[in-house]
Write a structure and sequence with these properties.
The complex is a heterodimer of chains A (394) and B (276).
Chain A (H helix, E strand, L loop, with lengths): L2 H16 L1 H7 L5 E10 L2 E11 L4 E5 L6 H9 L6 E6 L2 E2 L10 E4 L11 H11 L4 H14 L15 H13 L5 E5 L7 H18 L2 E6 L2 H7 L2 E6 L2 E6 L1 H6 L4 H6 L4 E9 L2 E4 L2 E4 L9 E7 L5 E3 L6 E10 L4 E7 L4 E6 L8 E5 L6 E4 L4 H19 L1
Parallel strand pairs in A: 3-8, 3-9, 6-7, 7-8
Antiparallel strand pairs in A: 1-2, 1-4, 4-5, 9-10, 11-12, 11-14, 12-13, 14-20, 15-19, 16-17, 16-19, 17-18
Chain B lengths: L5 H31 L10 H8 L1 H34 L3 H9 L6 H12 L4 H7 L12 H26 L2 H9 L4 H29 L3 H5 L8 H11 L3 H32 L2
Classes of the chains: A alpha+beta (394), B mainly alpha (276).
Chain lengths: 394, 276
């Protein structure tokens, strides 16, 4: 093939992958799927009509406060719990009635659940032994797994001789020794100290990418979720509030709960006067949102790190510094505007308590949330006015 | 008033039990050993031990004691382990536990007599099977009835420690085992049973050792068909009045108990260490 032809061939392939037809044929079966899954204890609805779909090989996080249903979802995937209604599919097959031990997934538990009557080697070898692998294969597997979690020298240690971080690693090695297609992690880092947690976040992410298997990670720590995940499900009250990439969820929270739970937020009541014009704290501001009814009541979100302190003349708002604390790389400042609203600001420059200063932000830092807007409606609206904006440009 | 030192206070706490210990544990032990090593006139001798170890009868009694204590322990364990396991899964644990402990509050002799009423030729069991025209059977005074009654009496002492050690096992471990591909049976064999061994050892101690010196049940239910060391001691002290030989058998029995203790405790401690 000549160079030109070869190039043309590649371009064709590229265009094919972009076209919708290719997408249809290339859409592989999700590794895990929930179809209208719910779980109730007596009258208590723990999980309400959950639909979700996980692609193979990605790092998913279920994020939410305790009691939000995130661990319930994990236990439904692993089979420790059975749904009250709905179907759970694994690679396209319904697995509602498949017992825990027959599912090709393994769990890293919050308290590790290591067997105290066995040493490190025997803990990791537990799964392969149950599978009746040969002695040499078991040895090879355990060695490989202990290498992976950097515990090669600890095979003969008893569990009670290990630190929390080491136990954590053994638990990961033990769960991976079965070659699961999905690894489920139930708040595995919550018992570790800050520094160790950071290291393990990085390492878990690395292990996931090296093995290329699906990870489903449960946490209540939004920072952890943002740092590790390809895709996040934010849960509250047994409902998925929002799902998306970490950037999407941080930048475009869909409702008050998500905005408040993910990161620090200033949330104010406002009115969307027309497209691209929002009114709050008694003033009109230019912004980048559209697609609402005229004069619709909305909530306005401004992230503390998007706010800057400036002179009163240059400020879009005038505030009085109420409190400030040094956080290492920034000052956490609390300020009050003339309407009495409290503002959280992360500023690089120091301020004096009681000082009156200007507060400034860019139009694209203003994020608008409608009341009771579903994820689908949100996406549709976003698409419609972004298209408008593109048309306007042309 | 002068402040008392910690040591003085501790000494004060020990006095009531100390009196008890000296009068009813240490003194009898010393007397027992002393009598086993003397003649009736108080001279030192090893004669009693010579008689004991030279006599086939006593050695057979020793073997009988150990053998029946072993059988009682095995039967008790077979009945108790599954029960303790089940008990641990029940919702009303405390209630069922109470039911199991309840019989231990009743006097041993009373319970034994009750079994005579149940098992005798005109007893409840024979009356019951008589409804189907079965002629009354000789149930009392057999090895089986002896084992049945002894096991019945010992079962709570086996269930309790096993139940406690099962209750201490983190339920997460069972979950983890299932998660790693083990079915219920494999989980039981590889995780639950090994972790409950401290309880099993404690239960064996609590059943085997007292069973070595059972004697009222051997007479009332076993009809003295089974003669154990307990029976022999009773005979020597109360019937033949040979306190020296009775003491000797007592010392042998105590030594056997201590050996059992050491054997089971050593293992119990090792698995307890691993279990933590």
């Amino acid at each position: 093939m000549s160079r030109v032809k070869w190039h043309a061939f590649l371009v064709t392939i590229y265009l094919l992958t972009k076209s919708e037809g290719w997408e249809l044929t290339n859409t592989s079966t999700p590794i895990i799927e929930f179809k209208n899954v719910g779980l109730s204890y007596d009258d208590n609805e723990v999980l309400k009509n959950i639909d979700l779909s996980l692609e193979a090989g990605k790092f998913y996080t279920l994020l939410g406060p305790s009691g939000s249903g995130k661990t319930t979802i994990l236990n439904l995937i692993s089979g420790q719990l059975t749904a009250t209604h709905g179907d759970i599919l694994f690679e396209g097959n319904i697995i509602n009635d498949v017992p825990v031990e027959k599912r090709n997934m393994n769990t890293v538990f919050q308290d590790y659940g290591l067997f105290p009557n066995m040493n490190v080697f025997d803990n990791v070898a537990f799964g392969p032994t149950i599978k009746r692998m040969s002695k040499t294969d078991i040895n090879a597997k355990v060695t490989e797994m202990l290498d992976l979690v950097k515990l090669s020298d600890y095979a003969d240690r008893e569990i009670n001789e290990l630190s929390g971080g080491q136990r954590q690693r053994v638990a990961i090695a033990r769960a991976l020794a079965n070659d699961p297609e999905v690894l489920l992690l139930d708040e595995p880092l919550s018992a570790l100290d800050y520094k160790l947690r950071k290291d393990m976040q990085y390492e878990l992410r690395e292990i996931q990418q090296r093995l290329g298997i699906t990870f489903v990670f449960v946490t209540h720590d939004q920072e952890e979720a943002l740092a590790m995940s390809d895709w996040i499900f934010v849960m509250n009250d047994g409902v998925i509030q929002q799902n998306g990439s970490p950037e999407d969820i941080y930048d475009e929270p869909i409702n008050h709960f998500v905005a408040d739970f993910i990161g620090e937020s200033n949330i104010l009541d406002g009115i969307m006067k027309t497209d691209y014009l929002v009114h709050f704290t008694g003033k009109d501001f230019e912004n980048v949102d559209a697609g609402m009814r005229p004069n619709e009541r909305v909530e306005v979100v401004l992230r503390p790190e998007d706010l800057d302190l400036t002179t009163i003349e240059n400020g879009k708002l005038v505030v009085t510094i109420d409190d400030q604390s040094f956080r290492g790389d920034y000052y956490e400042i609390t300020a009050l505007d003339d309407d009495g609203n409290e503002w959280q600001v992360q500023a690089t420059n120091k301020a004096e308590i009681g000082e009156r200063v200007g507060l400034t932000f860019d139009p694209e830092d203003i994020h608008i949330m409608r009341f009771n807007e579903s994820e689908d409606d949100f996406d549709a609206r976003l698409e419609s006015y972004e298209d408008d904006a593109d048309d306007a440009k042309e | 008033m002068m402040p008392k030192s910690k040591r003085q206070r501790q000494f004060f706490y020990i006095i009531p039990y100390g009196i008890w210990l000296v009068l009813f544990v240490i003194a009898p032990l010393v007397l027992l050993v002393f009598q086993s090593l003397t003649t009736p006139t108080g001279h030192f001798t090893l004669h009693n031990y010579a008689i004991y170890f030279a006599s086939g009868t006593y050695l057979r009694m020793t073997f009988n004691s150990v053998w029946y204590a072993f059988l009682i322990t095995v039967v008790t364990l077979i009945v108790s382990y599954p029960m303790a396991y089940l008990l641990n899964q029940l919702k009303q644990k405390q209630f069922w536990l109470l039911l199991i402990i309840l019989p231990t509050w009743i006097n041993l002799l009373l319970k034994t007599y009750a079994f005579i009423g149940l098992l005798s030729k005109s007893g409840t069991v024979n009356n019951f099977i008589g409804l189907w025209g079965v002629v009354p059977q000789q149930l009392l005074f057999s090895d089986w009835s002896f084992l049945l009654v002894a096991a019945y009496i010992e079962i709570p002492f086996m269930i309790l420690p096993i139940f406690n050690s099962l209750a201490e096992i983190n339920p997460r471990l069972e979950q983890a085992s299932r998660d790693l591909g083990a079915n219920r049976w494999q989980t039981l064999r590889r995780v639950i049973v090994p972790l409950s061994m401290p309880g099993v050892k404690a239960g064996i101690q609590a059943v085997f050792i007292p069973s070595l010196s059972l004697f009222m049940i051997t007479r009332l239910i076993g009809g003295n068909r089974v003669i154990t060391l307990g029976t022999a001691i009773e005979e020597h002290f109360l019937v033949t009045q040979n306190w020296q030989l009775g003491s000797t058998i007592g010392v042998v029995l105590i030594v056997a108990m201590v050996i059992t203790m050491i054997l089971t405790r050593d293992r119990a401690r090792r698995s307890a260490r691993k279990g933590r």
